From TrEMBL:
GO biological process, one term: carbohydrate metabolic process
Domain Alpha-D-phosphohexomutase alpha/beta/alpha: 8-141, 162-262, 269-373
Gene transcribed to yield this protein: glmM
Name of the molecule in the record: Phosphoglucosamine mutase
Cofactor: Mg(2+)
Residue span, Alpha-D-phosphohexomutase C-terminal domain: 400-452
Organism listed in the record: Chitinophaga silvatica
Family to which the UniProt record says this protein belongs: Belongs to the phosphohexose mutase family.
EC number: 5.4.2.10
GO MF annotations, alphabetized: magnesium ion binding; phosphoglucosamine mutase activity; phosphomannomutase activity
High-level lineage: Bacteria, Pseudomonadati, Bacteroidota, Chitinophagia, Chitinophagales
Keyword annotations of the record: Isomerase, Magnesium, Metal-binding, Phosphoprotein
Amino acid sequence: MALIKSISGIRGTIGGKPGEGLSPLDVVKFTAAYGTWLGQQTENRKVVIGRDGRISGEMIKNLVVSTLVGLGFDVVDLGLSTTPTVELAVTMENAAGGIILTASHNPKEWNALKLLNSKGEFISGEDGAQLLEIAEKEEFNFADVNKLGNYSVDDSYLQKHIDLIVNYPLVDVEAIKARNFKVVVDAVNSTGALFVPPLLNALGVQDVEVLFGEVTGKFSHNPEPLPENLTALSNEVNKSNADLGIAVDPDVDRLCFVCEDGSMFGEEYTLVAVADYVLSKKAGNTVSNMSSTQALKDVTLKHGGEYNPSAVGEVNVVRKMKDTNAVIGGEGNGGIIVPDLHYGRDALIGIGLFLSHLAHSKKSIKALRNSYPDYFISKNKIELDKGVDVKTIFEKIRTKYKNQPINTEDGLKIEFDKDWVHLRTSNTEPIIRIYAESQNETTADNIAKRIMQDIKEFMH
């Protein structure tokens, strides 16, 4: 059982004792803390909520709604929705904030409260710290009977989100339609099944086949859109002679593609391709987190822009994008952030821009992928024993590699000529992630192995 309180929200496994998993009592406590925190920021008493397709979603939603209504908030419930849709709805509804009930790419036993501010963006680390303090002290003040909030359901946002994408200046519906794409979608038994096919139809893609299209929350495979979890999609694209495959995670903020031969386009390259297209239409800068491929930097420099790395975490990427006036940014896990639509990872605008790019390129998706520099990222993790002092381990590694360029903004990033390795503790799990990148796959693996060996040595 796990309960993890971090910058990315309150996340936990369902069941078990309060404080050890995401129990109903924890849901009420942290929702009450969020509502209390919101009440300190603003007079506005409106909150938007939405959820992914998880088994526990309905239960969690009922707890969240009752708690917010009990605090005197009017709740607008989008029902089964996506993370980016809820983000957009917060600003379109002029709400004080929003809560998305999703554990993103985590397996079915997990759920979470992702907390948004009035801009429809994830709350900052500073705000999160205040909120956790309120939760710790249980400083809640519920409304009396005459001041209870109201509850309403609004199912118009699926269409509103699609309309925003279809009308976005760089999305070229005519060009997409003309290519007559055949697409297979892996909707992993969550809300992508409700959003991605209608979006594709609106973009002029008529031939759409959906795998795992029932919203049951019983994910047919591990829901993280990584190559090893997308074999069914890969096989189906190949078998049905489709032009491409599209995979999203359960809350539809991550996006990756499969080429016509069933090979992976590579989740790292979703952002690279979309940025290439956006920068070809308007000049500007880009941002990705420092665990993402340097292919984005290559593409940005090619278009005369400036690339800036940020700490890992969507909040950090967004902050850096605002600081550097980036026109496109995101994360190497298939997260696309298009700032003039909204500052949040959005697989749906990603699909619109990627298909526009593919249509304009007049290439197959495989040929498009081959037009980008090849880097290999070796993604690894080490589980942490209880009580391990990560700070000391990082200090020892830093000393060992002190002659290399090192960035400590987020964990440790060490550069070796054209290669790099980035190690950091996860915000959401008791692990150290070790990512290494090189133009040679074996080199990337070897760098990661070497650092993992260091970590193990310094752990004992």
